[in-house]
Amino acid sequence: MWTLWALMLAVLLIGDVDEVQGAGTDDIRAAMAASKRQEFDEALRLYTRALADQSLSREDQATAHSNRATVWSRKHDYEKAIVDLDAAIALQPDHGYYYYFRGHNAFYLGRFAPAAADLAHALEIDPRQRYSVIWLHLARAEMGENDADELSRNAARTNDKSWPAPVIQLFEGKLSPQEFRSSAKGGSKAERFAQSCEVAFYLGAYHRQQNRAKQAERELAEAQKRCPDEWVEHTGAEAMLAWLQR
User: Fold this and answer.
1) What is the pLDDT of residue 11?
2) CATH superfamily of 22-92
3) Largest Cα–Cα distance in the chain?
4) Which residues contact 159 (CB under 8 A, 6 or more apart)?
5) Where along the chain do its domains lie?
6) What is the mean pLDDT of the chain?
7) Yes or no: is domain 94-154 CATH 3.30.460?
8) In CATH, what number does 161-246 get?
9) What angle in degrees, to the nearest 10, is found between the helix axes of 130-142 and 96-108?
10) pLDDT at 24
11) Taking the complete model, does pTM exceed 0.70, yes or no?
12) SS3 category, 231
């Protein structure tokens, strides 16, 4: 199962530098290191050179495409991120994270139908992934669909009451905004930090769905401030704020 952090972050890395072996993988290692340093143009150059190596395994090719997609996404070039994720999926069609991440990039572009299709497919691969449940609901809501039954079914399959279950309960109408905010006060320092970001973003999305533009803008601006740049909630807040200002 993907970890909490892997699902909250628009992760810079897929795979482990120490586990990558074989021809062409030195460039992957170097690209991953460049990404950590936020040297994104250098990372793109190195991933591209790695992918030109015909001896690279299919798995490592998929890793390089997915990692390069993350770099494109960090540079706000979601179109190119999707192209790389198309390639990663062609190489490893049963890898649920690739659909999840491609769905995010489509969402940022306002392409909610393909975003929903990818997030639904990610859930077919692993129904326990609660962030796929949440973001599928966000895509459905942006399409103007009433997905209450689907959201309830998907939530039931996760069978987990820990965070981010309260996010799902907020959108199900089982928690008020005040109750939702109170639910995020436990856990370690790192968990509280993560939850403070998520509370702001998902309350912003909730108020947007309720046509409360001022409350939505306030919470989304807070999420943009609180959430690290590489987190999906930060990028989601950027996108929603832009839509509110149209």
Assistant:
1) 42
2) Tetratricopeptide repeat domain (1.25.40.10)
3) 55
4) 128
5) 22-92, 94-154, 161-246
6) 91
7) no
8) 1.25.40
9) 30
10) 77
11) yes
12) strand
